[in-house]
């Protein structure tokens, strides 16, 4: 799933009454978030979050509507139940039998039963990003239920395989397990799956980086298509399950994610953003999209027109949904509409068919839609269109077929099957990327003495979109099965905290409230400290092996199996004081909320009980080191031939939904651990286990080998051991550029990858690891690259030979670069790839089809794709920076003519800009440009003919402003200044004009703002 305003669970509960300020703005209230204090433990099979108060009443209403009960009587035979009839006829028949009230009720996520027709309830949204993760239990009032099935590698890891065939098999397993859960309880486990996430990984600091696939649209499209096809199955008329693409669109930041504007110039939209979503839809590998929380060019994505975009990319009928809380944000945090009726009407007209809002309570949605109908903002035809879209997918899922259709016989026995475990191991193995391997450090020799060290060496972590692990094979487990483990340690400090002569004591068993009570540091007074960077640590109690968490909004308790939940309560800081003491600070996510206040430090009362207070009233603790993690790690490393150090991230802490990363650094404590181990044993192999690019320059220059993997599920340890010992030859490849430390990344809110020169497409920076990077235990040679004309395009072939002594996979990557163009072209762009297996000495010819249309750019002068006449470099290699063969092709195309600014030209179709923001012309359609004083847009190569004499602009402004017209540059020749009077607001458009000094020929024309102004179009008079 993907909460957008807060967690975006189908059913989300309000948090318990706690220290919240009444002035808290609507978008910061977690209506879609589980209550804190009931953190979901991914290791449990069915952990539930209870709804309270109004949410419980909503659940009762859901039951009354029939969501929790089967139809009371057998249905008569209707044409819509005849699988021999065409789909459209069946949909129309059922649609015609529903009352308007019944149809309106189906616009909510929880569609109630219609007992008179024998129709059961239907709910949208089961999370299935890398395995069936969780859903919501209607019978229990909306509690979250966690699946305990096959947890595959995180999505970015699946993409790192560069193997769509494998990803399709993973999708098949996920769709099958979804069916298995559905067979057990169809009210909980719906068959519309909210996956995959296809948002481009434009900025590696994005908190949800683990959920996406790649910074490249072609690779993202290929992987999402494979995953969706696997989920759906191969039956042309029926669906195993129904994948929904998230989140449309330009959603790559968490900071203020429901109010920030993703400003997309047309080239970025058409060449970068759209293709990522378009691929799966054009291939019939998805059944709809979920709208994102953010604004796109000033308009909330929740009401951005889907009818003119995604619905045109497929002949199939799509069933589109909003993200959780999205409909309410339109009148809440976004303040885009004055009433919920207006919001509901805009949402339906934009092509969204299902409102994910208000937990299980469909009444607010029904009320808003009924009000929109009463006010004439919607018609029954609008409702019929949306419900018809919903039904098209419900029918394809086999709901109205005898026995549930061809996939109706799948049972719960399919979950966590031996075949799925085997597939999981393969996926985790193929996903791993060998970043460095010098001096033959890897593979390890069987039987050599290995020390296994590090905070992630003997644990597996899940993330917000993981199911619960039915079993787990840690890195230590996997290595122990293979060779002689000379020693094992997590390499973390074990400490005790003392104040006033007493030690902080934890409970045993299930845990208890911490308090100052003991006079000596026994096991119940000791805590293992895990460093996650930025000063944030977690404290694991030695008393019971559980993590310390904040409880009851005030005290601390040792009762969590791992950090987790929507509010991650297990985060702390040990803040050093000048006198050598430390203050224990709660550092959970609520501390970023203004309503939480300054009470985030721990205070011990005279009786030893704990509470939270301000820094001034906090209790200073003495931090006593019972055992040094570094010393223990060094001792283990010295006693081994090779040290394997497993470091990385905790998915609930190092960035996640709603929280972007501040940096990409490895935690300093982990960095120092690796350096100490390497100093003790030069044969140190680093296993880096996280979900995003990491600045590890210091390690790259020191240790001989680095292997990267995502959090890869239950089979992580087996997969790592398979690679470390050479039973598998690594062939994973990076799907993102890994920058060097000190590389300045642009503002995370700036989506103009062309202007900011972001991603491998436009960056001129030398990265730490390039897009597509990955090493092997063997070597490969490339020969004989040829590009031949073939129909409307080219056939590109290259011979690839395994020149080493081990069998292995090579990922052959095809890039192109256009040498001449009217616009700035990518440095290089991925056009194709293939993962091929080669035995030692074996040669295969890898062939790609390169269509001329693939080389098109979005021509802003005419609002369409165009192929320019130009030479193109054809580049083939093993990474974007490891080109092994190259040739040149001449592409027959057109010369884009000079701009004709004597015709009405959209301001948004500029060629270059400084500070321009794309905004909405109206709340329904159209883009405009917002400028402030000194900012500008330019129109390159404008044909002014024999001369221009004036300019007319379509403008909107809240106050007086002006627009200068210049040529050559923003400070070039001034042709004239257009005065702009206040028009009365952002959507009050007026035409203004002014004479211009004569200018002729072909010129670059600049519009430079003098004050705040919006411009929708311009015309130059000749």
UniProtKB/TrEMBL annotation:
Residues 1-51 are annotated as: Disordered. Residues 7-24, 35-46 have a biased composition (Low complexity). This is Glycoside hydrolase family 3 protein. GO terms for molecular function: hydrolase activity. It comes from Planomonospora alba. Residues 902-1021 form the CBM6 domain. Pfam families: CBM_6, Fn3-like, Glyco_hydro_3, Glyco_hydro_3_C. PROSITE patterns: CBM6.
């Amino acid at each position: 799933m993907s909460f957008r305003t807060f967690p975006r669970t189908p059913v989300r509960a309000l948090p318990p009454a706690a220290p919240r300020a009444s002035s808290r703005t609507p978008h910061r209230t977690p209506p879609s978030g589980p209550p804190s204090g009931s953190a979901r433990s991914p290791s449990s099979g069915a952990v539930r979050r209870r709804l309270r108060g109004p949410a419980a009443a909503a659940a009762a209403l859901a039951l009354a509507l029939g969501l929790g009960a089967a139809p009371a009587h057998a249905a008569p035979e209707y044409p819509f139940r005849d699988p021999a009839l065409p789909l459209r006829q069946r949909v129309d028949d059922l649609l015609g039998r529903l009352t308007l009230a019944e149809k309106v009720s189906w616009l909510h996520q929880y569609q109630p039963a219609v007992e008179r027709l024998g129709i059961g309830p239907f709910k949208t949204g089961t999370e299935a990003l890398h395995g069936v993760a969780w859903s919501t239990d209607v019978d229990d009032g909306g509690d979250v239920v966690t699946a305990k099935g096959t947890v595959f590698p995180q999505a970015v890891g699946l993409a790192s395989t560069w193997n769509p065939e494998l990803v399709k098999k993973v999708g098949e397993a996920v769709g099958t397990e979804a069916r298995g859960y559905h067979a057990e309880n169809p009210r909980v486990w719906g068959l519309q799956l909210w996956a995959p996430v296809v948002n481009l990984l434009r900025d590696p600091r994005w908190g949800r980086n683990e959920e996406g696939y790649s910074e490249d649209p072609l690779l993202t499209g290929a992987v999402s298509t494979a995953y969706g096809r696997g989920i759906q199955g191969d039956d042309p008329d029926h669906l195993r399950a129904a994948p929904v693409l998230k989140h449309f669109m330009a959603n790559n930041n968490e900071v203020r994610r429901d109010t920030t504007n993703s400003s997309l110039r047309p080239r970025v939209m058409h060449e970068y953003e759209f293709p990522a979503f378009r691929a799966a839809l054009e291939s019939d590998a998805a059944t709809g999209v979920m709208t994102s929380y953010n604004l796109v060019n000033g308009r909330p994505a929740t009401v951005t027109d889907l009818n003119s975009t995604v619905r045109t990319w497929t002949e199939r009928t799509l069933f589109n949904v909003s993200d959780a809380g999205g409909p309410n944000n339109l009148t809440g945090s976004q303040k885009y509409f004055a009433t919920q009726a207006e919001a509901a009407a805009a949402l339906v007209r934009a092509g969204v068919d299902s409102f994910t809002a208000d937990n299980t309570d469909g009444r607010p949605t029904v009320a808003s839609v009924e009000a929109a109908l009463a006010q004439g903002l919607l018609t029954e035809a609008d409702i019929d269109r949306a419900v018809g879209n919903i039904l098209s997918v419900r029918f394809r899922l086999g709901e109205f077929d005898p026995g549930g259709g061809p996939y109706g016989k799948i049972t719960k026995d399919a979950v966590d099957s031996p075949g799925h475990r085997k597939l999981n191991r393969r996926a985790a193995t193929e996903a791993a990327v060998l970043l460095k391997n010098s001096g033959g450090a890897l593979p390890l020799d069987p039987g050599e003495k290995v020390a296994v060290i590090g905070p992630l060496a003997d644990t597996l972590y899940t993330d917000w979109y993981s199911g619960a692990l039915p079993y787990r094979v840690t890195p230590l487990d996997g290595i122990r099965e293979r060779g002689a483990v000379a020693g094992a340690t997590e390499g973390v400090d074990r400490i005790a905290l003392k104040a006033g002569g007493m030690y902080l004591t934890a409970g045993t068993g299930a845990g208890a409230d911490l308090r100052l009570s003991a006079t000596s540091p026994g096991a119940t007074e000791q805590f293992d400290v895990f460093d996650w960077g930025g000063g944030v640590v977690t404290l694991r109690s030695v008393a019971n092996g559980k993590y310390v968490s904040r409880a009851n909004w005030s005290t601390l308790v040792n009762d969590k199996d791992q950090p987790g939940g929507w509010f991650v309560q297990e985060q702390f800081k040990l803040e050093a004081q000048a006198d050598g003491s430390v203050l224990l600070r709660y550092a959970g996510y609520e501390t970023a909320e203004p309503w939480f206040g300054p009470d985030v430090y721990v205070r011990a009362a005279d009786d030893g009980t704990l509470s939270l207070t301000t820094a001034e009233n906090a209790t200073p603790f003495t931090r006593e080191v019972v055992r040094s993690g570094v010393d223990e790690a060094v001792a283990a490393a010295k006693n081994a031939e090779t040290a394997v150090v497993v470091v990385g991230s905790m998915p609930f802490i190092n960035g996640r939904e709603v929280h972007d990363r501040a940096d990409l650094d490895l935690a300093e404590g982990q960095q120092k651990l690796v350096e100490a181990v390497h100093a003790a044993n030069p044969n140190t192999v680093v296993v880096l286990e996280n979900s995003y690019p990491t600045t590890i320059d210091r390690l790259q220059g020191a240790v001989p080998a680095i292997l990267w993997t995502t959090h890869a599920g239950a089979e992580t340890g087996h997969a790592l051991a398979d690679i470390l010992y050479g039973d598998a030859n690594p062939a994973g490849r990076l799907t993102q550029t890994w920058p060097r430390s000190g590389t300045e990344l642009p503002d995370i809110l700036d989506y103009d990858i062309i202007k900011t020169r972001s991603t491998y497409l436009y960056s001129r920076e030398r990265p730490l690891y390039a897009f597509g990077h990955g090493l092997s235990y063997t070597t490969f040679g490339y020969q004989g690259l040829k590009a031949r004309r073939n129909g409307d395009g080219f056939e590109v072939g290259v011979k690839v030979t395994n020149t080493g002594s081990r069998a292995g996979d090579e990922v052959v990557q095809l890039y192109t670069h256009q040498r001449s163009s009217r616009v700035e072209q990518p440095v290089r762009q991925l056009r194709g790839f293939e993962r091929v297996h080669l035995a030692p000495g074996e040669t295969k010819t890898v062939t790609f089809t390169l269509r001329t249309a693939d080389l098109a750019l979005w021509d802003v002068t005419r609002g369409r794709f165009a192929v320019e006449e130009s030479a193109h470099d054809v580049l083939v290699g093993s990474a974007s920076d490891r080109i092994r063969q190259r040739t040149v092709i001449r592409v027959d195309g057109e010369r884009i003519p000079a701009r004709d600014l004597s015709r009405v030209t959209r301001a948004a179709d500029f060629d270059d800009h400084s500070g321009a923001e794309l905004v909405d012309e109206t709340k329904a359609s159209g883009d405009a440009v917002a400028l402030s004083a000194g900012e500008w847009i330019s129109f390159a190569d404008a044909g002014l003919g024999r001369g221009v004499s004036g300019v007319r602009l379509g403008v909107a402004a809240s106050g007086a402003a002006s627009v200068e017209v210049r040529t050559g540059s923003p400070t070039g020749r001034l042709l004239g200044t257009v005065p702009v009077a206040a028009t009365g607001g952002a959507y009050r458009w007026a035409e203004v004009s002014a004479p211009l000094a004569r200018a002729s020929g072909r010129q670059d024309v600049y519009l430079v703002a003098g004050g705040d102004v919006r411009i929708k179009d311009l015309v130059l008079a000749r």
